[in-house]
Write a structure and sequence with these properties.
Structural class: alpha+beta
Strand content: 25-35%
Bound molecules: N-(5'-phosphopyridoxyl)-D-alanine
Number of helices: 7
CATH superfamily of the largest domain: D-amino Acid Aminotransferase, subunit A, domain 2
Number of strands: 15
Shape: globular
Largest sheet: 9 strands, mixed
CATH topology of the largest domain: D-amino Acid Aminotransferase, Chain A, domain 2
Radius of gyration: 19 Å
Distance between the termini: 33 Å
Length: 288
């Protein structure tokens, strides 16, 4: 039985109920986080809580918890669910919406308590640091049709869902998106890195992409080993010429992409830089 958290109470997930008048349901008016844990230890916790707070500030919702109380909530959910989920890799999903109001109106309501919902779930095991054995990804590309504030980790994910489904219908595991300038933004649920002409590149942070915590850990852990990642625009052309393409997210860590639009990436095999990046990531992920 999965134990969830709703508005101050731990309860079986099946019993968690929210009013249909919640603004999260009516407007997608809320933000969320997915925090990965491994053997009970959270990865990038401070940065996840910082982004959660930034998202709430962007929406004008007062953060209902301190960092310490969020950390305690995450720990408790992992503890309560570790046996039931029977996995070393547990993700904690947190959602905060503007709350429930009995009248549907676009304007922000006054004096409404935010709705806080969280649950734990088993995630896939981290990627195997082996170029032969790791799970590889095949993706399509598509014009990014989402909104102009993708830096907010909003629960309004319809654009992302439709883009993910596009790839899925094509039999692929992700969709890499590009803007009107034919520059790569991100994927429907991941950030992107490429290796091109011996350099590691990733699109810079702006309103077009989510400031991924895994992206940040990759950049920082490589920096600690003296390897530079250039945060600069990546053209669709560069993506097509790349020797390596990686997807990063809390649930995937660093996933190698071996085909883009049915064309092999580089020689079609998992690259050496991917292994180096994952090795650095694993070395530093609990200390950043
Ligand atoms: N997705 N970009 C988008 C659009 C995402 O949805 C995500 C994460 C990322 C990577 O962010 P992070 O490294 O902080 O997980 C980038 C999560 C896992 C999800 O929606 O389930």
């Amino acid at each position: 039985m999965t134990i969830a958290f709703l508005n101050g109470e731990f309860l079986p997930l099946e019993q968690a109920q929210i009013s249909p008048m919640d603004r999260g349901f009516l407007f997608g008016d809320g933000i969320y986080e997915v925090i990965p844990t491994l053997n009970g230890k959270a990865v990038g916790l401070g940065w996840h809580l910082e982004r959660l707070n930034d998202g709430l500030t962007a929406l004008g919702i007062v953060n209902p918890n301190t960092d310490d109380s969020w950390a305690e909530l995450i720990n408790t959910l992992v503890q309560k669910n570790s046996q039931g989920l029977n996995s070393d890799s547990i993700g904690v999903y947190i959602q905060v919406t503007r709350g429930t109001v009995m009248q549907r109106a676009h304007g922000f309501p006054q004096d409404v308590a935010p709705t806080v919902f969280a649950f734990a779930f088993a995630t896939a095991a981290p990627p195997i640091p082996d170029r032969e054995k790791v799970k590889v990804f095949s993706v399509i590309t598509s014009a990014d049709r989402r909104w102009q504030r993708c830096n907010i980790k909003s629960t309004s994910l319809l654009g992302n869902v439709l883009h993910y489904q596009e790839g899925n219908v094509a039999g692929k595991q992700e969709t890499i998106l590009y803007n009107d300038e034919q520059e790569i933004t991100e994927a429907s649920a991941c950030n992107i890195f490429i290796v091109h002409q011996g350099e590691i590149l990733t699109p810079p942070l702006d309103n077009q992409i989510l400031p991924g915590i895994t992206r940040r850990i990759v950049i920082e852990s490589l920096a600690r080993e003296g390897i530079k990642v250039k945060e600069q625009p990546i053209s669709l052309e560069q993506l097509r010429l790349a020797d390596e393409v990686w997807l990063t997210s809390s649930s995937k860590e660093i996933a190698p992409v071996t085909a883009v639009d049915d064309t092999p990436v580089g020689n079609g095999e998992v690259g050496e830089m991917w292994l180096k990046a994952l090795t650095c990531f694993n070395k530093h992920k609990f200390s950043l």
